[in-house]
Structure formats: C-alpha cells, structure tokens
Amino acid sequence: MSTTTTPATTPRPAAGDRTSATTGRIGDSPLRPDGTLKVTGEFAYSSDLWHEDMCWGVTLRSPHPHARIVAIDTTAALARPGVFAVLTAADVPGVNRTGLEHADQPALAEDVVRYQGEPVALVAADHPETARRAAAEIVVEYAVLPALTDPRRALDPDTPLLHPSHPTGNLVREVPVRRGGPVPDAPVVVSVEFEVGMQDQAFLGPESGLAVPDGEGGVDLYVATQWLHTDQQQVQRVLGIGPDAARLHLAGVGGAFGGREDLSMHVHACLLALRTGKPVKMSYSREESFFGHVHRHPAHLRYEFGADDDGTLRYGKAELTFDGGAYASSTGAVVGNGGTLGLGPYRFPVVELVARGVYTNNPPCGAMRGFGCVQAAFAHEYLMDALAERVGADPVELRARNGMREGDPNITGQTIDSAAPVAELIRRVRDMPLPGERGTDLLGLPGGVGNTTHGEGVRRGIGYSVTYKNIGFSEGFDDYSTARVRLSVTAGEPVASVHTAAAEVGQGLVSVQAQIARTELGVSRVVIEPADTAIGSAGSTSASRQTYVTGGAVRAACELVRARVLERAAGTLGVPAASLRLDGDKVVAAGGEVLAGLADVLGDSPVEETTEWRHRPTVEPDPETGQGDAHVQYAFSAHRAVVDVDVELGLVKVIALDTAQDVGKAINPDAVLGQIQGGSVQGMGLALMEEVLVTDGQVRNPSFTDYLIPTVLDTPPMRIEVLENPDPHAPYGVRGVGEPPTISSGPAVAAAIRAAAGKDLRRVPIRPEHIVS
Amino acid sequence: MHIELTVNGSPREADDVWPGESLLYVLRERLGLPGAKNACEQGECGSCTVYLDGTPVCSCLVAAGQAGGREVTTVEGLADGSGEDRDLDPVQRAFVENGAVQCGFCTPGLIVSTHDLLERNPSPSDPEIREALAGNLCRCTGYEKILDAVCSASGARMDTVRSASGARMGTVRSVDTDRTGATGDLR
Questions:
Q1: Segment A569-624, tens digit of pLDDT
Q2: DSSP secondary structure string, A109-140?
Q3: Which residue among A344, A423, A588, B22 is buried most deeply as judged by most CB within 10 Å?
Q4: Closest CA–CA distance from residue A196 to any residue of chain B (Å)
C-alpha cells in the first residue's frame, strides 16, 4: 500500500516531461491529449457543431405539471416564414416511449403531460429565434389536472395513479433490507427525520447536438452523452428504424455528472432531421436545460440507530423515500443503492430498512454523481454524531470502532472482499493539520466582501463524515465494455490505436486508455479513436466505472494483440514467445536486450483485436430481505470540514474541506486529485446552496442567477490523502474514484455548520434562515 | 442588419444579423469562432468571456450591433500562430500543464479572465485571484488546479518579464505561499 498526500508530497513530474503526447504509463500523470484543443477554443463540443444547410430545432414544453392535452393547433406556427417543420406526438413514426429502466416517457407528450417542462412539440426553422417564435404560436389546449407533488402522499389509497399500467402503481420500486432481526432493545437510541433537497448536475455544456439525415431513412447523430449505445437503442425505437440506421457519434461533452444518462434532444433532433431532410442542430438555453435533464432525487429519510452504552451499534432502522418525479428514469437503481448501501460503512448486527421511489408530478429525477448514497449519507452521518454525543464518545473514534473492515459482511450479507479502511480514513482526516485562526481579510469571512462582519458573531465548527459507494453496475446487470486495439506502422513508427464507445465527459478517460496501451504494448505513440456506435457498447460513463471496466477491456484487447505480435516475433527470432516482451517500441528479451524493432515485426501486417470485458457478476438482492452480493466493488472516503458561521446572519464560510480516499491504484494521480477536488465541491454545494426549488410542481429557479453552484470564492483549500489499497479483483487494482468524494463531503459540511451554529439542522441545503431561526 | 468588426486582429463582417443576436451568437454561429462558450447566456457563468476593446465582457450580454466597429479578442486569438507550431499563451499552457482542464467548457472564459487579471496584476495574491475569477463558474475541478494554473502562469509571465528586462522580480514560490495562506502550506 502506498499513500499519496497533497499538498506537499504529490509526485509531480516537471512540466517538460509531461507535455509530450507520447509519454505516460500506468501511474504517471501525462497531459490530457485534448488539453491543447480545449485551451485554444478548438475542441468541438456538441453545441459548437455546424453543417452546411443546417436548420435549428426547438422544443415546446408543457407549462403545467399535470394536464390533459385536449387539442394542438400548429397552423400558425407552420405558416411562419422560415419554418420547415412542426411535429407533435402524431408525427412519431415508431414507438413513442423512452426511458432507461422503464420505457414510460413519451418522446413527445400524447394525451397527458406529467411534469412542467415535458416536451409537447418541436419546430425546425432557419434561425433559432424563428423557431422559438413559431413554437410560441403553437396553440395547445390543456385541461389542467390536480398535481401530485408530495411524495409522501404518492402511495395513499385515494391518490390517482400517474402511470396506470405500472404494475405497482405510483411505487416505482421498493427495496427492503432485513438482516439479523428482530430489532432488539438498546440502551441508547438516536433517531432523525432528515430532508435532502433536489440537486442539479449543472454541467456547463448545454444539451445539444447535430442530427444529419443520410437520405436513406437513417441518421447520424453527433451528441454529448454518457452512453452512446443506450441512446442509440432508444432513438431507433422511437424513429421506427432498423439496427444501426441511427449511428451515434460522441461530440465534445461539457460535463455530465449523471445528467446525460437519459435522452434530451437526441430523438427530437433526429425526428426533425428525418422530416425536413436537413441537418438539424439543437442547443438548449440554461433555462431549458433545467427542464431538459433529470435531477438528483429529493429524499425524506427516517433513521434510528440503537447502540450499547459505549456506542457499539446494535441495530439500524431506516425508511428512505425518493421522489422520482413524473417518469422512472433510473429511480429503480437509485432506490437499490439507497437500500443496499443506506446505512453507510458500518457494522450492524440487525437491520430493518426500506427504500422506495415514487412517481409524482415533480420534475423527473434520476442519476447524479453519488446515486442514492448521497442522500442516505446525510442521515447516517447525522446519527453517528448524535450517537457520539449521547454516549460521550469522540465522533471520529465512534465511527472508527463501528466501521466496516475487510472480511465483514455489509447489510445485504455481502462480504467486503478487499480493503475497507474506514477507521484509517476517518482518523487520517482528523489527524491532518487544522487551519489557522480566522484572519481579517473579508474574503476569508462569512459574507465576504459584502462586509457583513469583521468577526463578530462568527463561530467555528468542525464536522466529520465517512461513507461508501458501489462501483460499476450492480444487481445482476451484465456490465461490460468493448475495446478494439490495433498495432500498425505509421511513418516508420509503431502506433497503437484504441477504439471504444466510452464517453469522455471531462474525467480524463482518454488519458487513461492511452496510458494502458503504452503500458501493455510498450509503445510510445497511441491514438484514441473517436467514440461512436461503430464498435460495441462500452457501457455508461457512470457509477465511477469506466477506468475499471473500459480500462479492463482496453487491457484485455492489448493482451490479445501483444500475444499475437510476440508469437510473430518468436517465429522470426526462433525463440519462445514467453521469453519476449514489448518495451520502448521494441521486442525485447526477458533481460531487456533489444531483439527487434516493433515496427519491423509489424511490417505492413497490422495486428488488431476486439474484445468484450466483464467484471465479476453480481446478483439482484432478494426481494423480501435485500440479501445478496448486489455489488462488485466498494469505494470508501472520509471528509473533515471546517467552517466559520456568522450565527447572527446565517452566512457560512467553508475554511477547509480535507479528505482521505482509497482509490485502489491511481492510474493517473493528477486526474484522481481532479476528481476528488471537483467531487468534494459538488457535495459541499448540496450542503450549502444547491437546490432546485419546486412549488406545486413548478420549478422556481431555472437559471444560474437563482440556482447557485460554488464559485472560486466559496471553495476552500482541500488537503487530500490518497490511499492505494489494490482491489485484487480489479484491473491493476483500481477502485472507482469519481463519486465517493461527492458523498462524504456534504455531510461533513453539514455537521460542521451544526457544530458552529449549535443548531439541530435536519435538512440540506442549509440556508441562512435555517441557521438564524 | 450588417455589422463590421475586428476579431482577433482581422476585419470581419456578417450579413442578415437579427438585431436580437448577441455578440456570442455572431462569433459562434456566423464567424466560425465557437471558442467562447454558451453555458448560461445570461451573464452568470463567464464561459463566453471575450475582450471588447480590451475589456473582458460576457459576450452573451453584448448585442451584436453594439460590437460594430469595435475590436474583439477571443480565446482563439490568444495563441500565436496556428496548427502544430502555434505558440500557446502562458495562461493556456499553464491550464494544460496544471490539470486545470477537465470537461473544458469553462476553460475559454477562464483563460480570458486570467489573461486580463495578469495583464493588470502580474503577481496576484490568492484573494485577488479568487476575486478576479469569481464570475467564472467551473463544475468539474473544484477550482484548485485552476488556482494552481493561475499561479503558474503568473510565474511564467514574470519569468518572461524578468528575462526581457533583466530585473529581479518575485519568485513563483512566493506566489504559491500567498495562494495557500490559510493553511500555510507551500504547494
């Protein structure tokens, strides 16, 4: 095991060593291959695309959270000069249903709209403003229906069903977890009702793309997404076209964080392109973006822990209710995580838990970084602090004592079969140096240059959190990735090209793929081919899984290529292949002496292999007890937050947000730090400021003026310790990195605010009025 | 509407501009310069930042007509030359080398804002950097590596100035110390 610490001790190669596109193996931090294009403005994001003779598509959306569509009149819109097409559900040629887990959402609303912002009609025109004006001229007659907006009422017997054909009514999914029962008495009992607000992914690149018809009934779609193949299947179904008649190509992705798992403009642009015969570009405004993707589920959490007098946990009880909104999206899997992981990384002899997700007429909710674990963490970490206070224990030591260890079963009975350093992580963040005393610079004080305090009324607080998350797709899903690797000679030099359909969304997978190819094939030049559906699925850029799963596929394809090349070299050299390896663009003997140039061995006969790679299978948890090996890997992280709170005004300044995380093996240490820093700040945002406000089914703040995400002034210095306890079951020992910091940072910030303000705050985000009330 | 303006040193013009179009739209959709980005189009995120007559502005908030006859510099105009041989601006180089780029959508705006900051203040302190960049949202990085990049670019610029003038100026390390004054660490 090794530990990397930043600041101060991160090995950082000199910049000169990192600027070459031909260096960087596993464990190095080569520069991003797309970095130069991104700093010069040349990188082509999905909203940058342009095509000769293209037109613009816009969406008309429902103003009502629940209504019957009585009639739609498109006459005036069609008559506007410059308009090429106006489409409604009646124009959908295929099956008018989309959805990640349940195909329950029309691409265009039919007889009913179920949330404010649901797409109703489309316009294509020669200018975006022409299209917008035409859309405003579409006359939709609605009969408004009562809206179900309180998720706690969704399952009442007298509540109307939003999807009458759904077999469990307004219940999208329920996951019970029962273990070791019945629930015993306990000398110490703590409980909480906690509420988590609706968070937005707030990626900066708007939903956008370009659909280009091929003139033969098919279409090429260039789009920003997390999973090309699931998009492709849904698009083809709605368009009513055959396999591979819609070819998807990854355009530059301006961030994702879960918000690009579901379709947005994909089908709409293709419908317009096939109808008009023209390339169609769509690009959402920020306001439309708030309606164009799912959000993180708001949650109601009722938790109770029982413990011995010394704080050793005896049981955990919990009821988690996730508001899924109008359509299922990935609510089922979020509920699965909330259930199977809902009590955090602790040892519970007895568990009685139920997690459920329900339909309402609120905005649809689905995937966001942390996926079901973020919400639960606020409640279980609240209770660990409450328990520590009740029994007079140190909150860090209480967590360490109850923390999972390798070999323990978790609450679904699955044995944690690699490192589970809960105690070490939480103690490490405690042992980091604390920030110094408050300074006098306004920027370091709550309220900042608003000049609201010079220190009077300001109290400091410290909070801790330790959490865990499943990595990869779970519950029996066939989770695989496909990679094609080719070794050939270009300009006299060996070049490895790597082709997958895996979505680079900013995290740096393009670097990781090249690092793996260089390591496995001993070459310096690697080309990462554009991701598209010309190759098999890579699965989603979700669940912190791509370095693990697509990395595994690239490694496996490289191994196949290497074996063939070495066989060929062995035949020529007259030595056993097993005695050869590839290094420095050469075929070398075991001892390292150069036997042949790789380019000479390849000649004009390239070697290419395509392979699928799967992680270990998982199982669906038992429907009655939730027991089973539902997940393939777990990743652990801890945070310590230090905050200053102006208790008179309710303003908060986060002074430090320090963390320790086990990443198994840091394939690219700089990218690991980037994930931890960005992920930590997203979690902090949920604790402090980020909430999509919904009243009576209407979103009140669909803009960056009113939906706040942390700026550089809100963001504290972050001390990071990276542990590398390899997972023996994963390629190179990797453990997913992207999500854990978003889970553990928020509860630490909330705890620090509670400590500073001396208030029992049971909801996030914590707003000033909660602190001063 | 017809407009003429100077972009990255070259005279440019556009015809049939609808008066409601922003400078951002004209740059991106009419002049083939999509470097300035369309993340919010309401002046909140800074991703569309360009120089207008030497002053950084959110180009989404400037009506195209207002830019007529004026000089615009976009992120595309900061590097010298083009293609493989181009010479990146020290700010651009620092963003790449410090891992300040993830998805990169905020990057063009941050580079223009940083470029402007260092033009005005070659050796900014940590609070000065944060204040100057407070109008540029980034969702991927948590800003840490962006701050590293700004410090690094500041040092690189000082090195350039130092070698050009022969004068001794502050070291990169002293900038770094300011940068993490709260914890007293050297980065």
A1: 999 999 999 999 999 999 999 999 999 999 999 999 999 999 999 999 999 999 99
A2: --SEE-STT-EEEEEEESSHHHHHHHHHT-EE
A3: A344
A4: 21
Contacts of residue B111 in chain A, CB cutoff 8 Å? 39
pLDDT in tens, B14-28: 999 999 999 999 999
CATH 3.90.1170.50 residue ranges of chain A are 47-145+207-283
Spatial neighbors of B42 by CB under 8 A, at least 6 apart, are: A286, A703, A704, A705, B60, B61
Q: Report the topology of domain A47-145+207-283.
A: Aldehyde Oxidoreductase; domain 3 (3.90.1170)
Of B24, B57, B77, which closes a domain? B77
> Are A28 and A668 within 8 A, CB to CB?
yes
Q: Which amino acid is at B146?
A: I
Max CA separation in chain B (angstroms): 57
- Asked whether residue B131 falls in the same domain as residue B73, the answer is no
Chain B residue nearest residue A30, CA to CA: B97
Q: DSSP 3-state assignment of A190?
A: strand
Question: Do the beta carbons of residue B43 and residue B58 sit within 8 Å?
Answer: yes
Per-residue pLDDT tens over the stretch A422-463: 999 999 999 999 999 988 888 899 999 899 999 999 999 999
A21 pLDDT above the threshold of 80: no
Q: What is the DSSP string of A141-183?
A: EEEE------GGGTTSTTSPPSSTTSTTTTEEEEEEEEES-SP
Spatial distance between the Cα atoms of A131 and A122, rounded to a whole number of angstroms = 9
Encode A408-421 in three state secondary structure: CECCCCCECCCCCC
* Number of domains chain B contains: 2
Given pLDDT bands bounded at 50, 70 and 90, which one contains residue A23? confident
Q: Is the pLDDT of residue A1 over 50?
A: no
Residues B58 and B89 placed together within one structural domain of the fold: no
CA atoms in the 13 A half-sphere facing the CB of B59: 34
What whole-number distance in Å separates Cα of residue A264 and Cα of residue A254? Answer: 14
Q: Which chain B positions have a beta carbon within 8 Å of A41's beta carbon? A: 33-36, 74-76, 108
Contacting residues of A for B147, CB less than 8 Å apart: 712
Neighbour tally for A593: CB within 10 Å: 8
Cβ–Cβ < 8 Å for B145, B100 = yes
User: Smallest Cβ distance to B102: which of A202, A285, A678?
Assistant: A678
Q: Is the pLDDT of residue B173 over 50?
A: no
CB contact under 8 A, B75 and A441: no
Domain with CATH 3.30.365.10 in chain A: 372-473+627-772, 480-614
Yes or no, beta carbons of B103 and A205 under 8 Å apart: yes
Which residues of chain B does A29 touch, with a Cβ-Cβ cutoff of 8 Å?
Answer: 99
Strand, helix or coil for residue B118:
helix
**Which residue's structure tokens are 């510099």?**
B73
ipTM score: 0.96
Of A335, A634, A673, the closest CA to residue A468 belongs to A634
- C-alpha distance from residue A310 to each of A345, A385, A401, A755 (Å): 19, 14, 10, 22
Count Cα atoms within 13 angstroms, Cβ side, for A753: 31
Determine the pLDDT at residue A12.
38
From A444, A703, A712, residue closest to B133, measured CB to CB: A712
B24 and B9 part of one domain = yes
A372-473+627-772, CATH topology level: Aldehyde Oxidoreductase; domain 4 (3.30.365)
- Containing domain of residue B11, as a range? 3-77
- Token pair of A501, please? 């359909």
Return the percent helix, strand and coil in chain A, to nearest 5. 25, 30, 45
Residue carrying the six token digits 């208790």? A647
Q: Which fold has domain A480-614?
A: Aldehyde Oxidoreductase; domain 4 (3.30.365)
- Can you tell me the distance from the alpha carbon of B12 to that of B8, in angstroms, rounded to the nearest whole number? 9
